[in-house]
Amino acid sequence: MQPRYRSFFWPAVLILAGLVALLVNVGAFPVDRLILLINLWPLILIVVGLEIIVRRGLHGTAADIAAALVVILAVVGAAGYLALNPAPTATNKLDVSAPVGALHQASLEVDAGSATIDVSGGSDLGSLLYRAHIEYPGPKPDITFDGSTGALRISQNTNFPFGISTGRFSLSVQLNQDVSWNVSENTGASRDRINLPHVKVSAIAVNTGASSEEMTLGQPNGIVPVEINGGALTVHIHRPGGTEVSARVSGGADSLTVDGHGQHGIGDLTYDSSGFSGASDGYRVSVNGGACTVTVDTATQSG
Amino acid sequence: MNNIWRHPYFWPGVLIVVGVYFLLYNLGVLWWLRGDVFWPLVLIAIGVWLILRRARP
Question: Which chain A residues are closer than 8 Å to B26 by Cβ?
Answer without folding.
Answer: 39-42, 159-161
